[in-house]
Amino acid sequence: MARCSNNLVGILNIVTLLLSIPIIGGGIWLSRQANTECERFLEKPVIALGVFVLLVSLAGIIGSCCRVTWLLWVYLLVMFLLIFLLLCFTIFAFVVTNKGAGEKISGKGYKEYRFGDYSNWLQKRVDKNWNRIHSCLVDSKICNSLIQKSNTKADDFFKEHLSALQSGCCKPSNDCNFEYVSPTNWTRTLNSSLPNPDCSKWSNEPNVLCYGCQSCKAGLLDNLKSDWKRVAVLNIIFLVFLIIVYSIGCCAFRNNREDNSWKRYP
């Protein structure tokens, strides 16, 4: 007679098996449609994740429904390692995103971002991969919406609530004291001071702007910080789900061993 825990493990893994199919399909689609360095960078991890989920799900289904004890044992081992790694990553994500925030500027609707305010670990990762990230940011055309607002008056622009990337990559730092012409067009004046090294990197060219600035890196880190915190919260929910599945899987494994014992000693 089928045990409830075995059936539950089988049902849950059928669900994850079905979920792995669109993940793999998305990775394959991305590899064919990729036009930017960002998309090409993502395709392999997405496909690898889908294949991993597929194989683990198959092991869980066969091990629980077909009473293959050794396969269920492998499934539980992988699940335990996954739970452990996910727990470590969640803690790590909260630690490395604990530092850094945008600085409010008086009379401005947007914030300024400083690269040195963020986690040293994140800074090193961004610096190491900056050539690829820089190319990706330029390809993504994050400043296009500001370029198209060429008739925006200075007072209206200063009230804009820009994203971290737009603030860091699409305009010069507030320290530069440049004269506003349009959101992505600024001129140096006699009153302009250059205490910030980003000031010398600014260009009115649409494909240059402040993409090479430290503030652009800081804007990226602020985005990463927000995204990682959301992922960490979702990881906690996923961890609870995995622990429940793992517990049910342990019951199914025990059932398999008991059934095998009865067959061995009738």
From TrEMBL:
Species of origin: Anisodus acutangulus
Keyword Nucleotide-binding: no
Compartment(s) where it occurs, according to its Swiss-Prot or TrEMBL record: Membrane
Family: Belongs to the tetraspanin (TM4SF) family.
Record keywords, A-Z: Membrane, Transmembrane, Transmembrane helix
Protein name per Swiss-Prot or TrEMBL: Tetraspanin-8
Keyword Signal among UniProt keywords: no
InterPro entries named among the record's database cross-references: Neuro-gated_channel_TM_sf, TET_plant, Tetraspanin/Peripherin, Tetraspanin_CS
